[in-house]
Design a protein that fits this description.
- The protein is an alpha/beta fold.
- The chain is built from 14 helices and nine strands.
- Strands 3-2-1-4-5-6 form a six-stranded parallel sheet, sandwiched between helices. It has a three-stranded mixed sheet with strand order 7-8-9.
- It is globular and about 65 Å long.
- The mean pLDDT is 97.
Length: 305
């Protein structure tokens, strides 16, 4: 009999992942969904195909009825509290799969606590923006015992993602090390694009001409982030695609890892400084691409383009 699945956490990433899981996951029963703010779960349930999802009102309800429980929440505190609550139930034999971006030490602690209760655990952080989550084009990084990772793979490539990075039989924390270090590439890319856009505007080259170069030489994420800058999307959204608070959390984790290894990430330090400026300007509504606005301000331009 096919396992019963539950999903906890319906943010910008979780909603898209759930939609693909429901549509392409070959589930034999409705996906149980839970979110701390129930309205978000109710709204998503209403948008999904009839009979394909069921809203749980508590974490305990979602966990007790399920065999495989996916989690995707915002930070270390949220996932630690979520799992602490989940483990109050009888979880022996259940499999927890965490897609959150947290410090590797947090993931290691989660694995220890989950295993102590007789349950299984796979770390599964993902690479990709919310649009990639919506399109089922994420890259999933899977770590943990191979037999447990194999139980998760039917829901990754071809369902929620376009590819897996398989760390089977490696420590759970390895997946998060890659995720945290990988995210520094994204922050550095946004920083570089922001500086290039501002230099193009102020030098007289023009952003439109720079955009042609980016499209020709750097298709993919560079183009997507460049478009978010030139269109003004970074300051016009009611809800950020990647909130500045979460971006700074990831940057802090990366600098922590680097410091422990005797490495300094200077590009990241610059980007994090600009993220701090975004927080001052836009508060929690600030977006990671607001780095562009911060660079504009440094160059005597308005934050908003």
């Amino acid at each position: 009999m096919a396992p019963q699945l539950a999903w906890i956490g319906l943010g910008n990433m979780g909603r898209g992942m759930v939609a693909n899981l429901v549509q392409k996951g070959n589930l034999s029963s409705p996906l149980i969904i839970y979110n701390r703010t129930q309205k978000r779960a109710d709204d998503l349930h209403a948008k999904l195909p009839t009979g394909k999802s069921k809203v749980a009102t508590t974490i305990e309800e979602a966990v007790s009825s399920s065999d495989i429980i996916f989690t995707c929440v915002g930070d270390d505190k949220a996932i630690s509290e979520t799992i602490e609550t989940a483990l109050k139930s009888d979880v022996k034999g259940k499999l927890f799969v965490d897609c959150s971006t947290v410090h590797p030490d947090t993931t290691t602690a989660l694995a220890k606590n989950i295993n102590a209760k007789g349950a299984e655990f796979v770390a599964c952080p993902v690479f990709g923006a919310p649009a990639m989550a919506d399109a089922g084009q994420l890259i999933c990084v899977l770590a943990g015992p191979a037999s447990q990772v194999d139980k998760v793979k039917p829901y990754t490539t071809g369902v929620m993602g376009r590819a897996d990075i398989d760390f089977s039989d490696q420590a759970h924390g390895k997946a998060l090390q890659l995720k945290i270090i990988g995210n520094t590439f994204i922050l550095s890319m946004i920083e570089t694009l922001s500086e290039g856009h501002v230099a193009a505007e102020k030098s007289g080259l023009g952003v439109e001409n720079l955009q042609k170069f980016i499209e020709a030489l750097f298709p993919g994420p560079y183009v997507a982030y460049s478009n978010r800058m030139s269109s003004g999307d970074y300051h016009n959204r009611e809800e950020p695609l990647f909130g500045v608070d979460l971006a700074r959390k990831d940057a802090k984790h990366a600098m922590n890892l680097a410091c422990a290894a005797g490495v300094r990430l200077k590009n990241l330090e610059i980007a994090d400084g600009h993220l701090a400026d975004v927080q001052k300007h836009a508060g929690s509504k600030g977006d990671i691409v607001g780095i562009y606005g911060a660079v504009r301000q440094e160059s005597s331009l308005k934050y908003e383009n």
